[in-house]
Specification:
Immunoglobulin-like, 2 helices, elongated
């Protein structure tokens, strides 16, 4: 159920982002004819890298979005004519983070403090140069304007989902776009990713592998050194964290994340270490061939005058379509078979191991079906050490399912995504050589109507067991 909620939320995120991009395109289409002559030099989202600053002066909030030209050519940003637009069309869009829907705001573009239109010419930024825009609003009602629950903010080239950083919207939204250079609030020490002073928290980000497969199991590890013990921790021992990445069209994605955390106390003088495991499955930002990723930890209160963050190293993830994965099929039994492979042969102690699984009805005479994928697919994972002893560990995945039935038409390969050894309670906790096999036991005949698995249908006779090839792997100690 949690996985389904995650996918549903991500679907809403992507649809909402698409709506805002269409609104922006519609606004730009209304620009003067001279703009069409400049489109060859217009900055695209792929040309720009975005960074953010969050400033708070209650009841007012400001978000500064700075764009750096990372392309190999100069490009132009057009601030647009001064206008107040109802329903948030054209420049930025806000949404309700808690309930996942758009909220309608009145946006006023390029007006000064006295409410007079401000003329701002187009800005051309060369490779490596920057420009910024300012979005400001009141998060507490100071008049007759009703508040709307906020937490998400989208615009050209960026999308933010951060309920703790973005407050409710209780006023007209003011947008100032664009200014050359970088914004100076009088405090230049708290810029995300560019702090001139040593960070009190260090974050090392690493992936679970060099390559990840589209729509399959993949995660990130954040190893956090917190010598002063300043990071607050939630019920899962995780500090407040955000992830910064890019979608396939270049849009900079910035959102809050959770995960599984393990805290190690290093003593009074060394503080503590936190290892955070971040699940990426279902996140819309992880698409495209290559994805640049950073994570950030909040060092100050989310509504401080200027929010301070610590930034990790940046990594690039290389994505491969699951359809390109080489399948290693076990022996067919009555026309069905299961394929199993691992990404590599050697793993570190504690490193989770994704199972690259697929099943297929090659030529079964009867209809083949199981419960929900992945947990109700009728798969059983077995891991043995070199002495033949079964490996058991704490299962980290909880699957509730929806009671749906999954059919398997003849000749159609069905990947089973999202299963790992730790999730199945089969991850070795000591160095050694191991063998993993997977058994598939679907039902044959009498498949229920797609939707609900009834008690009677679940008593249908099971197929003979199909077994994968045994796959060997090794677990080695971590280097000290």
């Amino acid at each position: 159920m949690l996985a389904a909620m995650c996918f549903k939320l991500q679907e809403c995120q992507l649809r909402w982002l698409a709506v805002n991009m269409l609104l922006l395109a519609a606004c730009l289409a209304c620009a003067p004819t001279s703009f069409a002559q400049e489109t060859a030099n217009f900055c695209s989202a792929a040309d720009l890298e975005a960074s953010y600053r969050f400033l708070n002066n209650p009841p007012n909030e400001r978000v500064i979005v700075t764009f750096q030209n990372i392309s190999s050519r100069s490009c132009t940003l057009r601030p647009g004519a001064s206008a107040c637009v109802p329903h948030g069309a054209g420049w930025v869009g806000f949404g309700d983070y808690r309930h996942g829907h758009t909220i309608w705001t009145t946006n006023c573009l390029n007006y000064d403090a006295d409410g007079k239109p401000r003329s701002q010419p187009p800005i051309t930024i060369a490779t490596g140069q920057t420009a910024y825009l300012i979005v400001s609003w009141d998060s507490v009602s100071v008049g007759s304007t009703a508040c709307q629950e906020g937490g998400t903010l989208n615009g050209f080239g960026f999308s933010m989902w951060a309920g703790s950083l973005l407050g409710d919207v209780c006023s007209v939204v003011h947008i100032d776009a664009y200014y050359p250079g970088t914004f100076d609030s009088g405090n230049t020490t708290l810029k995300i990713g560019a702090s001139p002073k040593p960070q009190p928290v260090a974050i090392k980000l690493s992936p679970s592998g060099d390559i990840f497969y589209g729509d399959d199991s993949f995660w990130l590890y954040a190893d956090i050194s917190d010598p002063g013990g300043i990071l607050p921790l939630d019920a899962r021992s995780c500090p407040p964290m955000l992830i910064k990445t890019r979608t396939s069209n270049g849009t900079n994605w910035f959102e809050e994340i959770g995960g599984q955390c393990h805290v190690t106390e290093n003593g009074p003088s060394l503080g503590r270490s936190i290892r955070m495991k971040i699940w990426t499955m279902g996140r819309g930002a992880f698409v495209g061939a290559d994805t640049r990723v950073e994570v950030l930890a909040l060092l100050s209160a989310p509504y401080a005058p200027e929010v301070e963050m610590a930034t990790s190293n940046a990594i690039v993830l290389h994505r491969v379509e699951s359809s390109t994965l080489e399948r290693k099929w076990g022996t067919q039994v009555k026309g069905i078979a299961v394929s199993l492979s691992l990404d590599k042969h050697e793993y570190l102690i504690g490193e989770d191991i994704p199972l690259r699984l697929a099943v297929e009805n090659f030529s079964a005479a009867s209809d083949i079906w199981t419960g929900d994928l992945p947990c109700g697919a009728g798969l059983t994972v077995d891991v043995r050490d070199s002495d033949g002893r079964a490996v058991e560990s704490f299962a980290t995945s909880i699957c509730t399912g929806h009671g749906w039935a999954q059919g398997y038409p003849q000749g159609k390969l069905v990947p089973v995504l999202g299963l790992t050894l730790s999730g199945q309670g089969r991850l070795p906790d000591r160095a050694g050589d191991y063998i993993v096999t997977v058994v598939w036991q679907p039902f044959a005949g009498g498949a229920p109507q797609m939707g609900v698995v009834t008690q009677n249908s679940s008593s249908a006779p099971p197929n003979p067991v199909a077994r994968s090839v045994p796959v060997a792997f090794r677990v080695v100690p971590r280097r000290q």
